[in-house]
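Hi there,

I know you've been waiting on this one. I reran it after we fixed the sequence typo, so this is the corrected version. Both the input and the resulting structure follow.
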Amino acid sequence: MIPPGNSESTPTLILITESYPLGGSGEDVFIEPEIGFLAAEFQRVIIVPVLDFGKTGILPENIIVERSFLKRPGIYSKFKSLFHRETYKALFNDLRRIKSLSDLRSEVAFSAYTLYYSNLINALIAKYGLKNGTALFYTFWFDYATAALAFSAKGFRFITRAHGQDLYEETKPFISRYWREKTFCRLTRCFTVSKYSANYLRNLYPDFEEKIRCRYLGTKNPGKLNPDTTDKETVSLFSCARVSPEKRVLYLSKIIKEYAAHHPELIVRWLHIGDGPDMDKLKRETKKSPKNLKIELTGRIENKEVRNSLATNHFDLALLLSSTEGLGVAICEAMSFGVPVLATDIQAIPEAVGEVGFLMPLTDDVNKGADILNKALNVAHSRRRASREHWERHFNAESLRRSFADEIRHLLEK
């Protein structure tokens, strides 16, 4: 392991994450495919999580896990930020966009966290002897850590990924335009996970369009396909999503129940992976189901178990009916196994499923949803090979992450 200090000629990447590699709610699925390539491109990678869920994994030898950001801002720090001029500037600039008490709280909290982590970033620079020209900061989410880099780390280059909730300004939580514009002024690159979201940001911030690029995340190659079947009397459905309002798993359960009720001659199996605030509602919703519908709700499980389910159990269709979505890693995961996808026709989802998947309009109409599900299932089997080929062309993480690591390494040379 390369120790702190004496790093003026050591190409260093500082990756700020939510909780990786210390556990959490699925961030490892996004980041793990990239770590090996980053470690190969940079002599030293410092991973800086801000939350600790008590999990540690095996990492390349030149990776350091820095824990100084795990101490969250206390009451004094938050109170102090209320009197900072940047907090007032943000409030004044975003005043017309603040429509509720929730928006106001989000605005003030964002400023507080930005100012707090700005100090930690400066301390990190001193601790590791980081120098502009040999160190690149990389935040995996376009949030307060990215804004903190714009407020500190003077002279350093920094980049960010942008996904869904940290990008779309029409969704919760409230996103500060003041801090976003301030960040864009100093940001080196903003890499969105879809072409749709790249264009979305360019339209909102045309002065910074040259800094915005689309770079897909993709998923790992499973090395095998979802097993096929000749059983024409059973329909198997797969979904993997947080059980929360924006993911609309409750609506999904209703259309599956409706489909099963209209096809009593079939055995309908539905496996849902994921947990969240609506889990109790989902359990109540699925208690009263047609006798031919068999439901398995696993809750949250490790990604390797998700992939094992896709590798060992036949599925006719994977479903994702979110009302807002970055690109849909669950979609890419299913297609990598050759499972066709039915998803909502919103934002970047059509980009993900391409012409080989099935799209459903954003609706709460259960009958309409069940009808679309039925039509998709009638032809889904013919799309299995095409789904895998679509993933191979566009969402193979190995090629995507290798080229991304090479690209950001060369940002230090420009």
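Quick highlight: Confidence is low (pLDDT under 50) at residues 1-7.

Best,
R. S.
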